[in-house]
Amino acid sequence: MPYTILCVEDEPRIVELLQAVLEHPDIHLLAAYNCEDGLKRTRQQKPDLLILDVIMPDNDGWWVYMHVRADGELRETPIIMLTGILHRYKIIKEFANSPIDAYITKPFDAGAIRKTVQEMLGCTLWSSQTGLPVRSESAGKARLA
Q1: Spatial distance between the Cα atoms of 26 and 3, rounded to a whole number of angstroms
Q2: Would 138 disulfide with which of 21, 25, 54, 112, CB 3.0-4.6 Å?
Q3: Domain ranges, ordered by start, for the chain
């Protein structure tokens, strides 16, 4: 079963890196480069998982998070928040007092993000020893839409 992941991130290079790290035949990676578009695409696509950057120019990931959690159709969507290391201590404090599903600091480790994605989706997509895809029911690569 393919999984749709929406990444809301204002830095295209981070999206490209996530695309490479999450490459798998059963993952369809979508991207939005600002909060407004991210919320719109979340409502349209109803992804299996959201990855939200915390700090963005137009708003912040918390804004998207609050709108998703307030929407009856979307409130159960797992969310991973991404934050830069420079904001780490402030953000960790915010995360500690929030109901957030998971957070990852940038720069991130490929194995750590894959593990978190698998936990949020409730499946095994990559081998813990090799990092290679373990499911092969679908053909093709993860693609950015």
Answers
A1: 6
A2: 25
A3: 3-121
The predicted pLDDT at position 55 comes to: 85
Contact of 15 with 53, CB cutoff 8 Å: no
CA distances from 37 to 14, 113, 145 (A): 17, 23, 13
Mention every residue, 6+ apart, whose C-beta is less than 8 A from residue 101: 78, 79, 80, 120
Q: Say if CB 6 and CB 41 are below 8 A apart.
A: yes
Distance (Å) of CA 142 to CA 17, 18, 60, 139: 12, 10, 26, 10
Q: What is the largest CA-CA distance in the chain?
A: 42
pTM comes to 0.83
Residue 138 has pLDDT above 90, yes or no: no
Strand order in the sheet with 3-8: 27-32, 3-8, 49-53, 79-84, 102-106
Interval 87-98: pLDDT, tens = 556 656 665 556
Provide the CATH topology of domain 3-121.
Answer: Rossmann fold (3.40.50)
Provide the token pair at 89.
């201590």
The answer to whether the beta carbons of residues 124 and 4 sit under 8 Å apart is no
